[in-house]
Amino acid sequence: MRKLLDVYCKHLLQEALDPVDEVELEKPIASPDSQFVDVFCVPRPNRPAPQDVPILGVVWKMSAETCSFEPCSKSPTVHDLRTLGRKQLSLHLQLCKESGNRELPLPKQWVLSPGRPHGGLKGLKATPMEGWPTGFYSSGAFLDMWIVVLSELPLTEETRLLRLLGPKKMQQKVLAEIQGLPKNDLSREWWLEIVGEMVYFFDENRDRRKPSEEQLAMTKLRQEFEQFKESLIRKGEARGEARGKAEGKAEGKAEGKAEGKADALLAVMAARGVAVTDLVRKAVMTCQDPATLDRWLVQAATAPSPDAAIVFGA
Q: What is the largest CA-CA distance in the chain?
């Protein structure tokens, strides 16, 4: 379950930040024990203004400079934060070597904690930050590690994306907020698109015999998302245009999306204990049809047993 949450958080951040940042998942770091930054962001040259990507909220400001995101499935301990600090310093050293510039600024590291890490905040001597919502703490300029306590964030539109990265109960509350948005709310279509992309994660524990209120709400949101996509097609609005994509990148974007969905599918299968043979891996990685990959993702995440998690060609 923790691995699935980790994959979910990484891909949600990738989807949300794609219009404004070049996002790379699992960025390798040269070190003796092979570390990886969960989400690494470099701002795009023509970055859309915050009002053009309303779903980002405060995350737009967080990612306005080169940075990394480290979502945590539980509140990090002092040991956890030391490990993350070592990862951040290794990343900085690597970036300096790659650029040939030893004076590159240390990239901010955003540690997303579901609850308040009392020992970690005390150990870092982290303090609440002015000009940021409640729940933002900084360790200071030397390490430039920022801890965001998701449970302390105000329930506002500005923090909605961050709260969607939290534990399941927090996610369900955010989904209820999205469902309750007025039809004329300009951000509603953006949220429906993001939720539609991540629906296979939300459905992971779906009980088909007796769906819960949250599952029914998720189904309704998915239906609304499909209607939204159909309306875009009827109007001739390319999805890339709706998200501020530059013309000519559509093909590369489609290939990138297929690759991302394939990686997510393999991660979900691994999290559920599915045996991934060379034949299965080849079928997943060579599939270029996002709709097929979406269908396989939903099946892998919601099947009642690992043996039934995926049936190619079904």
A: 59
pTM for this prediction: 0.64
For residue 18, give every residue at least 6 positions away whose Cβ sits within 8 Å of its Cβ, in sequence order, or none: 243
Beta strands in the chain (DSSP E): 21-29, 35-43, 67-71, 108-113, 127-128, 136-138, 145-149
Give pLDDT tens digits for 4-45.
Answer: 788 888 889 988 998 899 999 888 876 566 678 899 999 998
Q: How far is CA 289 from the centre of its chain?
A: 22
Rg (Cα) of the chain, in Å, rounded?
20
CA atoms within 13 A on the CB side of 241: 8
> Would you call 254 exposed, middle or buried from its count of C-beta atoms within 10 A (0-12, 13-18, 19+)?
middle
> What token pair was written down for 215?
């599952």
